[in-house]
């Protein structure tokens, strides 16, 4: 398994600052939050970026891309759904040129947005991905339409594509009351990326200080032959400690990888 840091660990920093801190924390791989402008521009709007320029920035800090994280395809209006789907297509083109094999994508809000239009977007993207060396990992997220085991069952009953898999987020499963280890045992063949978080209830805490069953999850994945990324995510309340938590988190990831 390779170990990565998500740029959300340093969401208050510029992209250059984030890359520097990821490198200084000891990481070789970074997952970059390149959300569309409709959501929240954090570490890059792909409409305005060039793959060769991002590659040069990564090289400057001795880093490689683990994934591009796009947030979610929202479905509050048809125009918004189409715009975010088009952004995902831009991300696929961008990732292929960058040499990044993974896009992380999420689903719409469970309480206020419909699910079926999201499935139409996934069907379109599955066709678009044909011929690209890129896959989409659908991330579970608390309070959206990819939250429970049955949500993934619904998706994969309709969309059977080797280009569409799962980004398993252990923290969001903890928030939703789902054991990530049990989920990993059931869906290991679909898991193509992992967000390692630690939670107490719905609250993100430093890795190793919460109640999330990360050890059980990694054991289940390793037993099934998973060899992708373990990507650290931190969304802690005491964000001023993010640098320290990230460094300690790398030690935690190494422990998980050695299980």
UniProtKB/TrEMBL annotation:
The keyword Isomerase applies. Gene3D superfamilies: Divalent-metal-dependent TIM barrel enzymes. GO terms for molecular function: isomerase activity. InterPro entries: IolE/XylAMocC-like, Xyl_isomerase-like_sf, Xyl_isomerase-like_TIM-brl. SUPFAM superfamilies: Xylose isomerase-like. Keywords: Isomerase. Residues 19-254 form the Xylose isomerase-like TIM barrel domain. This is Sugar phosphate isomerase/epimerase. It comes from Cohnella phaseoli.
